[in-house]
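1st attempt posting a full record on here, be nice pls
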Amino acid sequence: MSQPLIEASRTEPEAQARGDHAVPLVVDLDGTLVATDLLLECFFIVLKQHPLRLLLLPWWLLHGVARLKRELARLAVPDVHTLPYRRELVVLLEAEKQKGRPLVMATAADRILADAVAQDLKLFDAVFASDGSVNLAGEHKCARLVAQYGSRGFDYVGSGRTDRPVWAAARAAILVDGSDVLGPKPAQGTRVERVLTSEAAPLGSYLTSLRPHQWLKNVMVLVPLAVGHQFFAPGLLAQALLAFLAFCLCASGTYILNDLLDLPSDRHHPRKRLRPLASGRMPILHAALLSPALVAAGFAVGASLPWPFLVVLTLYCILATAYSLRLKDIAILDVLVLAGLNAARVLAGSAALAILLSPWFLAFCFLLFFSLALIKRYAELMVMRTIDGKRAHARAYLLKDAELLAALGGATGIVAVLLLALGVDQTKGDAGVAQQGAVWLVCGLLIYWISYMWLMAHRACMHDDPLIFALTDRTSQRIAALIGAILLAATVIWGSPLPGGTP
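the predicted structure (as C-alpha cells):
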C-alpha cells in the first residue's frame, strides 16, 4: 500500500478573513462519502477469509475501539475502487477541487482504510483518521479539526448523530442523508448549506435483499404431497405451508448473510453490484441484524412441525452458512452443496408430513439439482467472459472449464430423468400402464427442457440464475404447465404416477 497522506500542519486562520473557496471543506467517510460502513465490511471479509482471527476480537476491543479498527484493517482492506461512492458528493468535491478549495477527509475509520480511499479518489489535501490509539469520532474529531482550523474555520460534510459536535464547531454544514435524523439544523448557529439525499427506497431495498423470487424453490417442500397421493389432504397441506414459510424465512436469512460475505465479488459483477447491500442502498448493520432474526423466525414457525423437520432445517442452515463462508470457492464441491440445499427442501417436506420418499425419486431430485447448479456456474462464466475476456473466472472455475461443466451437467440431467423412469412403480393392469405412460411423457418433456436450458446457456442467452431465467422464459413456462397438467391429471385419476411416497 502507498504511504499515508501527510496531515496538514496546524494553522489557525480566522474564517472571516477568508473567502468561501479558502475555507477547507471537511468530509466524513462512512455513510457520507461512501454509502457503507468500512468497519463492518472489514469484519465480514475477515469472517470469510480468516474466521479464526475473530477469536481475538474481544482482546482487541479490550484495548479500545481504535485498536479493533486497526487490527481488522490490517487483515482486510475492501476493494476501494468498487465501493459505493455517493456520486453527487464526489461530483461536488471535484468541482470544489477545481476551484482550488482545500479538501480534507476526517473519519472515524482506520487510517489504513482512509488512505486507501484517498489514494483512489485523489481529491484530498489532508486526511485525519483513527490511528489505532484514538478513535477519531464525535468529540475527538471535533477537537482535532478545531485545533487544526479553528472554530468556524471549516465547513463539514457528514451524515450521522456522532457528527453533532463537529457541526457545532463548523462554519457551515452539508448533510448527506441526514436531514431526518439531525433536524433542519445540525447545531445552533450552524448554517446548512446543502442537503444531499439518496434516491433509494428503503423498504424496497429490504424486500429485495430477501430475494423473494427465490422462494419459488421452497415450493419443493410440497413435492411429497404429490408423490404421497396426499395433495388434497387439508391437514397435511396446512403443515406443508408452514414448512414452506419456515424455509422462506430461513433461506432469506442465509441469502442476506451470503450477500454480506460476497460484497467484494458482487461489486465486480455487472448485475449483482446492483443488489441492495453491494450498492449501499441497505445499511450493512441492518442486514447483519436482519439475517439472524429471519432464521430465528423460521425456526419459530417450524417449531409446530415434527422434530425431524427441524433437524433438516438446521442442517440446511448450517450447510448454507458453510457454503457462504468457504464451500462456494471449492470447485465441484460447491455445486454438490447447491444440489444438496435444494434436495434438503424435498427432504424437509417429507419430514414435516411423515411421507417417506423412494430412493429412486430422491436420486432423481439430487441429480436434477446438480445439473441446474452446473448451469448456474456455466452461465456465470459466460457473463464474466463479456467482462474479463479469456481471463474470466467464476468462483473456483476458469473459462477453460466451461466445456467440462457443460458435458458433466448435460449428462447428469439425462441420468436424473433416467432414474425417474426406472423408479416408476411396476404396477399391473391398465392403470399401471397408464401411469407409466404419464411418467414417460413427463420424462420426455424434462429431457427437452434440460437440453434447452443448456443450449440457452451455451448461447449466452441465460441469466446467471437458472431459476430467474426459467420464470421469465416462455418455453420453460410452457413445459412446466404441460408437466403440471399431466401430473395433476394422473394424480386425480390414478394417484400420483411418480415413484413412491408412502404415508
